[in-house]
Amino acid sequence: MPEPDANGDDRMVIVVVRSGGIAGLSKQWRTEPAPDHRPHWRRLVESCPWDAVPAASPGADRYQWRIEVDEGAAAARRAQLSDGQMEGPWRVLVDEVRQSATPKRGGR
């Protein structure tokens, strides 16, 4: 869980992990938006249907996506999605995290 920053504000941390596929490799992207960028990121996070994840589509060797959002005192959000579920606001959030972060191989 993130700790408060120097100004006493809680940090926002968004982690995306993609695993599976033919090789079974895992990649992780992480972003910690600066305070002045958090409103944009909150809009992205809140646009995702956290309580109504779409139905999984069948298929072998597909990627699995884990999305985690921690905002300090706010409740953490977590979703596990298959490749076929990565659409709409989920895709927008993941694409922005991937663009703003450097990928890291492996788990957490």
Structure description:
The protein has helices at residues 38-47, 89-100, and strands at residues 13-20, 27-31, 63-71, 74-82, 104-105. With 108 residues, it is of the alpha+beta class. It has one domain (13-105). The chain has a five-stranded antiparallel beta sheet, with helices on one face. β1 and β2 form a beta hairpin. α1 runs antiparallel to α2 (89-100). Mean pLDDT is 82; it is low at 1-8.
Beta content: 25-35%
Q: How are strands sequenced across the largest beta sheet?
A: 4-3-1-2-5
Sheet having the most strands = 5 strands, antiparallel
Question: Could you tell me the mean pLDDT?
Answer: 82
Helical fraction: 10-25%
Stretches with pLDDT under 50, minimum 5 residues: 1-8
Question: Could you give a short description of this structure?
Answer:
The chain is of the alpha+beta class.
Question: Which structural traits does this protein have?
Answer:
5 strands; 108 residues; alpha+beta; 5-stranded antiparallel beta sheet
Provide the fold topology.
Blueprint: E1 13-20, E2 27-31, H1 38-47, E3 63-71, E4 74-82, H2 89-100, E5 104-105
Helix pairs in contact: 1-2
